[in-house]
């Protein structure tokens, strides 16, 4: 009898003690249960060392917490289909890297966990994104993703070609076109520019930079559909099609794959092109693989002569669309707390800088603490200094409005690059093409719900 | 009633039962994975299914949309141009190949096997191969390299940069892949033509051309029709070659039914519309099937 | 101008040989060049220096070995399923008498002609509901939809060509239909079965669309889709892609060298005899 009473008392004591514990405020850092397993989806970038560095960072988190992380990759090409398939199959990962318009799209489908309070929680540790990047991750005033880096496009030129032709380095789209005309030498198989309107970021990304810099956009500040039948859009479309009509680009430019402009630039077939830092990476790689002194000299010259300028400006300013990669947590995750811990780890300045050091300049951190910490790295040379400024000029899909699911679908539907193709290939007039594009965009906004 | 008759009846029932047993796996597979999905496809074409959202019934809206969509009109044109030209070229080449091989005595089997290599290679690899054969970059493009080196060209030609060029390129890839099948079938057909016909004709003083036109071709008629119909149906539904070579570009110059359906379903996430595109092929399919059945099966009696 | 037949024939043979072999040689030759050689167009026709780095790179830097394994497993499983289902069905249609036999034969042909392009979307949903997507299981289930009709059709022709008497003899001796099938008919139809198995293997090995749509995970996919993935973004690893193409084509060619006679017989069985 005595034992029972004692045990009941201790039971009561235990109960009181536990409830006292439960009323204490929760610790700031999310707790991770040992043995947790998370699936992380990462964008496979063009630079393999970066991918490995990201994976290593994730594994460091796993080791620290006695958990495990399975990293799966998606590419620029299949990023839509992969996520979409996962959503349909209900096999979404715990944490996924989301490109510029994905947070809006997927949160609209009810797939993402609300990270507003989590973002506030870790602000002390990682900082905040700058005002022009923040909209990418927000819908209304709720935050659905935390931005990590921006992979931007720059205007690559061959400095020696410009110097020899006594042409000024271009600052605007119009100047770039004039420079191309001046440097064009089709007889020698050398062209002034290589800008493809293909279905890759090199295509639809640059088209958006062009449009936004000219003040042409298909959405208003409120995110609702706005007609593109404007004089600004005419000017932008004219630029986009004149560069083909004027014969200042190689004949097959329109059919290039994502690597087409890289290869043509590196082979010195074209004087200018828009691209991410992977061109610099390719040139540095070629130097490392040089087999004899003569080849080494050629490669060193190439590196010295190639230049990455800020992306051209238009009449309304320098606005550059870029791939902004953020982390989001899917509602299907069985352990959102662990997912948050992983994100906090990867966004921390130390981890971000260590990954960035292996990125050959293509990875410009967004959060201000990491940006501050990476200033030294980007001071390497002129090109790198330009790379580091990427976040300054960034505007998201659907500018000047917020990123919405409809804006995301406009980008994904290829209508932005199909329109100039109609002028170039099917010989439509600029007005006809803009009319067609406007109709398609309106239809998307009309039929898309939520 | 004779006891013999009822014995027969029982035997027949037993036989039918055994047949059912033997056919069961086939029937299960067919119903579950072919018939049922086709039924689902028809249903899906009547909805506005967008990935990530539940579907809503919209009747024939997708069909009406496609009927007015100019891209879809182009898709229809492209599909027919691609198929007709490609199959036509395959027939002609097949006849030539059969005639040539027929005259080879030593090692005929070896060569026949060798010539079938394109037919057994993965179409993805074939698409990549021909993409590079036509590439504008001399390091990769076979034709440009050769023409430049021979001095016939001063600058590389971007074969696949124009709608016509791109269509030509995919037709060539499809033709290269498919003509051996025609050749081998026609060869077998040739060998089935009785020698006596030729001998009689020679005795009558017929020219080789005359013999070809009046004996060979009619003798090949059956094989030709069957192979052509089969190839027509398979070619019009091609996906791999065009997807890998051009993705349907430039613009929509080489977009055909299957690739357009994939683009609408997986890039634009509109599954209702995507399925409808494919259903448009069904009437052509049915026609082709009826024709083939008549030719292939009527003689099987 | 009349050329002797012999000259014409050899001219024709040369043209065909060139047409057929040059593309293969182009790929093989590029597979032995470095990325820089291809990029800067040095040593176009014959790689110099010759390098194996694409082959080794393929093996160590990409997921090619995994894809190869997946393709192999899929092809073997599908071949097994197909051979069993097709031989059973083919035998029934060819040898057993039952009402509706002709319709079944026509149905089988019709099924073969239903394009995968029509089925891939609804099949995707069906497989997703079964939880089979993103695994090779989705291919085990979907590939037979095109291999079985074709192989059944093939085997119907083969079984029909075999004489009835052998079976009758076995039946009279008291064997059941099943035993007659297994003991007597199958061994005789061996060439047909081999042809059918090779067909099924080849069709599975080369299939692209279903693998592309049903499997998103890079580690679970097959070679054709993997090759497509090797084309990532800005850096197109040409040499590796070529090397992968060479490696992928070799098994099929090797298999094929041994059995092409039977395969050709099978191919023409339906269309020529009529």
* Rg of chain B, Cα atoms, Å: 25 Å
Strand content of chain B: under 5%
What structural class should be given to the helix and strand makeup of chain C? mainly alpha
Mean pLDDT of chain C: 81
Low-confidence stretches of chain B: none
Shape summary of chain B? flat
What is the helix/strand order of chain B? Answer: HHHHHHHHHHHHHH
Q: Write down the Rg of chain C.
A: 23 Å
Q: Which oligomerization state do the chains in this entry correspond to?
A: heterotrimer
Distance between the termini of chain C: 39 Å
- Write down how many β-strands of chain C occur, each being a DSSP E stretch of 2 or more residues: 2
Major sheet size, sense and barrel closure of chain C = 2 strands, antiparallel
| Largest sheet strand order of chain C | 1-2
Largest interface: B-C, 97 and 98 residues
Instruction: Encode the helix/strand succession of chain C as letters.
Output: HHHHHHHHHHHHHEEH
Mean pLDDT of chain B: 86
- Low-confidence segments of chain C, given as residue ranges, are none
Net shape of chain C: globular
Helix content of chain B: over 70%
Helical stretch tally of chain C: 14
List the keywords:
heterotrimer; A: 450 residues; alpha/beta; 48% helix; 12% strand; B: 301 residues; mainly alpha; 75% helix; 0% strand; flat
């Amino acid at each position: 009898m005595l034992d029972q009473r004692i045990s009941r008392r201790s039971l009561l004591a235990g109960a009181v003690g536990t409830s006292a514990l439960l009323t204490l405020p929760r610790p700031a850092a999310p707790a991770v249960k040992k043995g947790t397993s998370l699936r992380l989806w990462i964008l496979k970038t063009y630079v393999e060392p970066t991918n490995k560095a990201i994976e290593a960072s994730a594994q460091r988190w796993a080791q620290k917490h006695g958990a495990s992380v399975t990293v799966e990759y998606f590419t620029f090409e299949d990023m839509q289909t992969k996520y979409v398939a996962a959503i349909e199959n209900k096999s979404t990962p715990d944490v996924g890297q989301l490109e510029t318009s994905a947070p809006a799209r997927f949160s609209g489908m009810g797939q993402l966990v609300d990270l507003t309070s989590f973002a506030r929680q870790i602000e002390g540790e990682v900082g905040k994104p700058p005002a022009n990047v923040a909209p990418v991750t927000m819908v209304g005033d709720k935050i659905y993703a935390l931005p990590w880096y921006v992979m931007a496009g720059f205007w690559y030129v061959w400095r020696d070609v410009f110097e020899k032709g006594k042409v000024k380095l271009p600052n605007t789209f119009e100047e770039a076109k004039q420079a191309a005309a001046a440097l064009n030498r089709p007889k020698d198989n050398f062209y002034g520019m290589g800008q493809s309107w293909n279905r890759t970021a090199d295509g639809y990304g640059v088209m958006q930079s062009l449009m936004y810099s000219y003040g042409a956009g298909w959405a208003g500040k409120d995110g609702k559909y706005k007609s593109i039948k404007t004089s600004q859009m005419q000017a932008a479309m004219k630029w986009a099609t004149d560069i083909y009509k004027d014969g200042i680009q190689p004949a097959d430019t329109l059919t290039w794959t994502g690597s087409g402009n890289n290869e043509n630039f590196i082979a010195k077939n074209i004087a200018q092109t828009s691209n991410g830092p992977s061109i610099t990476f390719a040139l540095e790689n070629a130097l490392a693989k040089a087999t004899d002194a003569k080849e080494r000299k050629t490669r060193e010259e190439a590196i010295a002569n190639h230049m990455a300028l800020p992306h051209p400006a238009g009449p309304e300013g320098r606005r550059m669309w870029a791939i902004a990669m953020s982390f989001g947590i899917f509602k299907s995750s069985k352990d959102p707390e662990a997912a948050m811990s992983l994100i906090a780890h990867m966004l921390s300045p130390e981890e971000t800088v260590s990954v960035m050091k292996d990125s050959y300049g293509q990875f410009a951190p967004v959060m201000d603490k990491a940006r501050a910490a990476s200033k030294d790295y980007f001071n390497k040379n002129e090109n790198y200094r330009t790379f580091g400024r990427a976040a300054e000029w960034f505007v998201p899909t659907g500018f000047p409005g917020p990123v919405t699911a409809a804006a995301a679908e406009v980008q994904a539907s290829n209508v932005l690059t199909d329109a100039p193709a109609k002028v170039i290939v099917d010989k439509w007039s600029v007005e006809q093409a803009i009319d067609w594009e406007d109709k398609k965009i309106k239809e998307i906004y009309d039929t898309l719900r939520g | 009633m004779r006891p013999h008759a009822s014995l027969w009846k029982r035997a027949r029932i037993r036989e039918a039962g055994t047949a059912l047993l033997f056919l069961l796996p086939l029937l299960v597979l067919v119903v579950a994975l072919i018939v049922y999905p086709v039924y689902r496809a028809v249903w899906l074409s009547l909805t506005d299914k967008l990935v990530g959202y539940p579907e809503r019934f919209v009747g024939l809206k997708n069909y009406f949309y496609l009927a007015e969509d100019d891209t879809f009109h182009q898709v229809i044109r492209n599909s027919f141009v691609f198929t007709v030209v490609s199959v036509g070229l395959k027939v002609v080449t097949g006849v030539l190949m059969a005639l040539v091989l027929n005259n080879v005595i030593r090692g005929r089997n070896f060569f026949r096997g060798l010539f079938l290599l394109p037919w057994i290679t993965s179409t993805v690899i074939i698409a990549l191969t021909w993409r590079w054969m036509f590439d504008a970059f001399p390091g990769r493009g076979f034709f440009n390299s050769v023409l430049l080196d021979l001095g016939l060209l001063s600058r590389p030609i971007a074969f696949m940069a124009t709608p016509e060029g791109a269509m030509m390129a995919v037709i060539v890839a499809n033709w290269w892949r498919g003509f051996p099948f025609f050749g081998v079938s026609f060869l077998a057909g040739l060998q089935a033509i009785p020698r006596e016909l030729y001998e009689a004709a020679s005795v009558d003083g017929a020219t080789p051309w005359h013999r070809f036109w009046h004996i060979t071709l009619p003798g090949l008629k059956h094989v030709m029709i069957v192979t052509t119909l089969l190839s027509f149906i398979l070619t019009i539904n091609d996906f791999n070659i065009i997807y890998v070579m051009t993705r349907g570009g430039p613009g929509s110059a080489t977009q055909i039914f299957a690739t357009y359906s994939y683009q609408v379903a997986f890039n634009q996430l509109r599954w209702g519309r995507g399925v409808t595109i494919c259903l448009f092929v069904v009437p052509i399919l049915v026609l082709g099937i009826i024709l083939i059945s008549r030719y292939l099966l009527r003689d099987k009696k | 101008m009349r050329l002797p037949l012999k000259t014409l024939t050899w001219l024709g043979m040369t043209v065909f040989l060139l047409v057929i072999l040059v593309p293969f040689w182009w790929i093989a030759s590029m597979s032995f060049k470095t990325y820089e050689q291809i990029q800067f167009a040095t040593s176009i026709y014959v790689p110099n220096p010759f390098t194996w780095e694409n082959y080794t790179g393929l093996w160590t830097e990409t997921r090619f070995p995994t894809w190869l394994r997946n393709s192999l497993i899929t092809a073997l499983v599908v071949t097994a399923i197909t051979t069993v289902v097709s031989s059973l069905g083919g035998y029934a249609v060819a040898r057993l008498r039952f009402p509706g036999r002709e319709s079944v034969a026509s149905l089988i042909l019709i099924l073969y002609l239903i394009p995968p392009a029509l089925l891939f979307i609804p099949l995707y949903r069906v497989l997703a509901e079964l939880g089979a997507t993103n695994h090779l299981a989705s291919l085990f289930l979907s590939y037979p939809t095109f291999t079985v009709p074709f192989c059944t059709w093939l085997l119907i022709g083969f079984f029909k060509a075999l004489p009835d008497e052998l079976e009758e003899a076995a039946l009279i001796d008291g064997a059941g239909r099943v035993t007659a099938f297994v003991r007597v008919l199958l061994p005789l139809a061996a060439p047909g079965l081999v042809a059918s198995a090779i067909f099924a293997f080849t069709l599975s090995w080369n299939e692209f669309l279903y693998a592309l749509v049903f499997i998103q995970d890079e580690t679970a996919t097959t070679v054709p889709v993997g090759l497509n993935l090797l084309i990532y973004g800005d850096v197109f690893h040409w040499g590796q892609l070529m090397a992968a193409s060479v490696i992928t084509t070799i098994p099929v060619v090797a298999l094929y060298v041994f059995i092409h006679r039977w395969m050709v017989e099978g191919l023409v069985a339906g269309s020529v005899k009529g």
